[in-house]
Every structure is written in structure tokens, then in C-alpha cells.
Amino acid sequence: MVVPPVSDLNTLYSAAPRLTAWLRRLGHAVVPIDLSLETTLRMYSRSGLERLFAALDPRAVPAEYEDVYLNRDRYVRVIDEVMPFLQGRDPATAHRIVRGDLLPEGPEFRVETQKARRERYGPWGKVDLARHLATLMLLDLTNLFRTISPHLGLFQYAAKLSQSTPGFDAIAAELARPPNAIEALMLEVAATAIPAEVDLVCFTCPFPGMLLGSLTIGKWLAARRPAARRALGGGFPSTELRELEDPRFFDFVDYLVLDDGELPLERICARLVALRAGANDAPAPLHRTLTREDGRVVRHEDPAAVKPRFRDLPAPDYAGARMDRYVHLLSSGANVFNRLLNDGPWLKLTAAHGCYWKRCTFCDVHLDYIDDFDPLAAPKLADQMDALHAQTGLSSFHFTDEAAPPPLLVNLALELLRRDRSYQYFGNIRYDPGFTPDRCRLLAASGMIAVTGGIEIASDDLLPKIQKGISVAQVIKVLQAFRDAAIMTHAYLIYGFPGETRQDTINSLEILRQLFRADLLQSAIYHRFSLTAHAPAGRRPELFGIRVTGPEFRGFSRYDLEYESVAVPAPDPAIFAAIDRALTAFINRLCLDLDVRFWFKDVAVLAPTVAPDLVEETMKRPLVAGGAAGVDPRLCWLGGVPRWSHGLLSVSCQGGELYTARAPRWLADGILRCHPSGWTGATPPRPNELSPHGWYEPLRSRGMVLV
Ligand code: SF4
After folding, report:
1. Is the pLDDT of residue 628 over 60?
2. Is the full-model pTM beyond 0.85?
3. What letter would DSSP give residue 167?
4. Ligand 1 binding pocket includes 355 (Cβ within 6 Å)
5. Reported confidence tier of residue 22, pLDDT bands at 50, 70, 90
6. Which CATH number fits domain 328-529+571-620: 3.30.720.120, 3.40.50.150, 3.30.565.10, 3.80.30.20?
């Protein structure tokens, strides 16, 4: 099971351990191999740098990077100290790095002054500052090595070449030339890692920046491991290559798998096993798989196939994965979510397959990965967390959900508290009114540290068109609930949704400004609206005032669509640049009291029409309709086990302080019943079981929540 180059370096991508577990359950021997990580480690090693410096043409080095090239001996000398430091294996190296005389400093170091950088991290942030400096050094090297391959990035390889490219010609041309020095290193790593005797090599390819690496290795496999079959699947082919027609693709892989890999790989393995055994009976047909037969692309779909339900799959299997080898970069000290992701390694888990909402009009709701909602039961999810913790010794989890449903997270939190676990986790959600203040307190107590979710456009005119199912006021209240529970928040934002006017944009930016000022958001990112083939807006563009104009499909990818605005204003790149600049400032907590028109120097905009205190006033209001915890909320105690002796109750509260009061014994028993561990047998108490006696209110602020 291969993670092809190049992807994130901070942790193992989620599909590999998930599919490994499934195939092992079926009785197959599986070796997980992260060629993305291993290629990067090989490149950024003493011998790797020597090879790459020797391979590059000095005449091709841009003037800006000349000092990086001239300092090559220094890079070679320090790299074997820097990489173990970035892997977290040698933290004391930080002291030498921050002194400033170890790392060569190229153009990336000149973006900011040394003083500003040091002030940001402060006297106690040496390890972080050193991580940041070491990251800048790797970026300088990566930029220089683009003279060897223009496709190189620190987290991707040839993403631009592969993404939404309607024809295969450009990729085929790249695969036809001899490998460059970087690809030669990739292939050497593959030769070391992929066993000589192997029946099937599966490439899990979630992003376009992993395709060229996969196909390069696929071509090498055909020559060096001719008996091995090659399968490629994952998010990228499942969204972009569903209509693939170009047979040349199958020079590099044998099977292209769409959607969830479990059943297609099961069928491919069964076929290979039958072939090897020389069985006479035909194995079950392939399913959701494309192959080449007689020079033509053939689609295999077994109408009788029943895919395993997500809830029945085994826990991801990390056996064989080296989680201590991942690299923890720090490219920007200000964006807390970049930071969080890179602080891993995170164990990737999914609470629910698909999305419980599945209505947003820009989203791939017509594909299985969104449409097929299939949640795990909370105890099973907690079992998986326990299993992964036992296997790896790690206790940090990243839920890779499209949008984890609030009731499932609530039940997971109760289960984790019942089991007395102290894990930490974060994941993607929808800012759903189901996340009440009390539920957020419960989630925080169970280890939730952060959430990410789409606000898209903070406009009550546009949110209904997006069918997000939330209003601006609801978003504010939900963010407030997370903030008050000390859970970090990050928002995904869209610019240019069909029908968005300049007034919508400036109003939305004004609300964002207020959200950051109130500390309801810690980070956010803007994307330009993209029209995709599997979204409601892509299927029925006329309903959104737009018309699809391209691209002309030429047998390879069909995903991102070109369009023109017919009945709505067209997006303006200058506006996008302005709001992106503003957002960067907000994330850095700058200019939060400035009129948002300040950011639109080159384009005319009117003043926002939303009140300057809209967020503040909404925060003061009680919960909006739909914000209740549920039909029949129950009490949950987030503090410790109560003790009662001679009429005196003492119990540690959620914040750790000790609460003592003269109280009847039934109160201690009642608090115990409210603890998640007491929920198992007895019916969890309702508020009125404590309130007539006046005990409810004093306990509320100390850790008694309604969920
Ligand atoms: S955008 Fe998010 S919430 Fe909306 S349908 Fe897609 S996954 Fe679900």
C-alpha cells in the first residue's frame, strides 16, 4: 500500500492504514510504504543534497538563488542535523539553530526581518523559531531544485500539471522523458522499499500532486517488477478521472479504482489469487474499476456488488508504519491551523463516511464520498481510538470527516469520558446549531481542541443559495460556544459564488472582521469559487445564472468547469486579492478596528450595510431557534467523582477547583449519576431532578451541562 510522492510530510495519509486494515482482514499480507515521506527524507539528506547539487545546471540558477547554490557545502554539512530536529528526534538542536550561525540563509529568510521573527516567537519559543528557520531552509532548497524539475514542491509534485487537465498529452510527455535527478531519487527509494516479490502495488492518490509520482513509479514497476499489478485510487481519480477514456493511462497502472477502495481491491485481489492458483472458476467481476482491454478503456461495474458498510470496517491498521519519521515543519508562525496540522503526527480517523447534510450547492454531493452517509457508532469509534493508541503510543487524532455530525461527536465525548481517556482530537464540522455551549463544553472536556468548518460567505442573502442550512446569527452563536469552551476554530470561505455582489463581499468581510475581533475565529482561508462537475451548481448551472463554457474533455480529467456569468455579476480578481490581504491581516490580529473599505484600494466599494456591532450584539442574545441540545436533554457532570461525608459534599469541578457545600447525600448520588460513567445503566438525570432543590444552578458553572 503505497503513498506516492509527494504529499504532506507531517503524518501518514488516512487511506493507507484504512485499506491496509481491510486487506489484512481478508487475509492478504500488506506492507504500508510512505514513498512521499521517504523520498523527501532521501532528498534532504547529505547524500541526497550532494546528488541534487551535482545534477543542477549552474547556468539555470536564478540570480535570486545564487547564494543558495554558492552555499551548497553548508547545506550539505547541516542537513543531517536539521532533519532529525524537524522529526522531533533531536530538539536540543534548536539552540544552535536560533543562534543564527548554523543554517545558511537564502531568499525565504529575507521575507521578514530577523527581529520581527524573534519577537513573534519570544524568548521561550526557541524550538518553534528553530522549526520555522529550518522550514525556511528547506523551502530555499526546494525553490532552487526547481531548476532540476519545475514540478517540485515541498508538499506536492506536478500538481498543476495533473489538476483538471482535460487531456493526458502533457502528462504522457513528462512520463516519456528520462527521469530527472529528483525522479531518479524517487525510483531508488521505490526500489529499496517495494519488495522484489509483490503481487499488487496500490497507490493511494488523494491529490493531483501525487499523480505524476504514482505514474513514474508505475512505469518503473512495469520494467523492474513486471509480475506486479498496479492499482491506483483515491480522492483525485474518484473526483477527476471518472470519465477517463485515454488508454495510454494504462501504460502506467493496470487498474484505476473509483470511490471507496475496499470492494474494488477485494475483487482485484481475488482475481490475482485465482490467476496465480490457476483456478478454473471465474472470480467475482471487478467493481467500480477501469482497465484497458484490447486497447480500449473498459469500465467494470458489478450491479450485484454490495460494498461493505463503513461502520463494519476494521480500525485503520498502523502496523509497519513508522510514525516517528514524519517531519514537522512550521512555515508560518501566525496561522494556528497550519501550526496545528504540522504539530502531528496525527492519527487519522473518520467518524462518519460522507456528510449528514449533503446539500451545499458547490459541493460534490453527487459523489459517494459525500452522498453516502454512514456513521460509526460512538463506542466503535472510541474502540478504534483505543486500538490506534495501543498500536502507536500516540494520542492525537485528526478526524478526516467531511462534516462530523454533532450527535455522534457528543456520544463519542461521553464514551471517552466514560473510559477516562485523555486523548486530543480535532476535525471538520459544519457550524451547526446543534453545537450548543453545553455540548461544546462536553466536547472540550473529552479532548476536542479545534474544529474547522465552512462559513463560505457570511451573508444571509447568499447562505440560502449555497444551501448551507445556517444563518450568520447561528454561525456567530456556534463560534461563540466553541470559543467559550476554548476550542479553536478555523473557517473555509468562498469568494465568487454565483450571485455574490460587491455588497455581499464587503458585508461578509465586515462580519469576518468582527468575528476575528471578538476572537470567535482564530484562522480562515479564502478559496475562489470553483464550479465542479459533481456539484448541484455544476449539474444545473442555469439555476445559478451561469453557463458552462469548457473545458473541452479530451479523454482524461473532467472536474473543474469553466463558466461565464450570464445573469449574475462576474467575480473580480482584484476583489479577491483585497479580501485575501484583509484576511491575512485579521489572522495576524492586525487592523481589526479599521474600516474594511481600506483593503479595496483599486476597486470601488460601498460601505458595509451590516451593523458595526452585529457580532457583539448577537453574542449578547440568547441562543437562536434550533440551538437546543435536543428533544430531551440530559444532565452531564464534567467534574470528578463526588464525596459525601457527615453532611458535607466535596467534588472537583470541571476547571479543577474543589467545590464543598453542606448538602444532602442524594445530591452526591445525583451528581454521580450525571457523570458519563453513571450514564451507562441508569437513565441520565433530567434538570428537574436537581433543580427543585436549588442545587442545579450552583453546579452549572462548575461543570454540569445539558447535552
Ligand atoms: S460542503 Fe460540507 S457540509 Fe456542505 S454538503 Fe459538502 S461536506 Fe456537507
Report:
1. no
2. yes
3. B
4. yes
5. very high
6. 3.80.30.20
